[in-house]
């Protein structure tokens, strides 16, 4: 309960001082650290049955790579958004461009060449009016489950099950590369404790944000040096990857349900 209270206190404090962007569509409710997930089952944030510390080591099956893109541009993500669990569950109420049209979205968030994106300041943490990012040191404990969209060479993660809109990621992060699981979505389980910077995610990419993000920082694991990323944590026994629990993801490679948005 201690970590839940800490996260909720940070979210509540940030919400009091920050305006809610009018162009951002609201989800059903803010993401919270809670015992029940949005499907009514036990949340996977804490430990569960399985191997070390309740972890269930496994490798997710690769899915068919994205073959068609929205507007024929990879930066706009797949033409059809994934609907298969576990990714489909994270896309409930998600709108690719928020309340904007495609042209306005690209104008607001695209780079100068309009072939990529401008990412938020302060590494995506909510920023207070005085310019300080809202973040704090937080120790992830064995059995905690975290996830990310993207290859393990990255350094950003989130509590497992955080809705995609709360992550404030661009639509292209839902593309499926070759030999990757659907939307390149990966779930990890903590085996050895380690510390991260944690805090609420700033609204961006026409999404509401205010999920929690975890940022890997070398100051907490100096032995990793500049190579600190998810790959290093896996290689050094801090994390194991998990495959979807049988029954949660009926998809196999090449047989993925989708929906448009």
TrEMBL record:
Residues 43-53 have a biased composition (Gly residues). InterPro entries: Fungal_surface_NADase, TNT. GO terms for molecular function: NADP+ nucleosidase activity. Residues 32-55 are annotated as: Disordered. It holds the Pfam family TNT. Residues 1-22 form the signal peptide. It comes from the Bacteria. The keyword Transmembrane helix does not apply. Residues 139-241 form the TNT domain. Keywords: Signal. PANTHER family: TNT DOMAIN-CONTAINING PROTEIN. This is TNT domain-containing protein. It comes from Micromonospora polyrhachis.
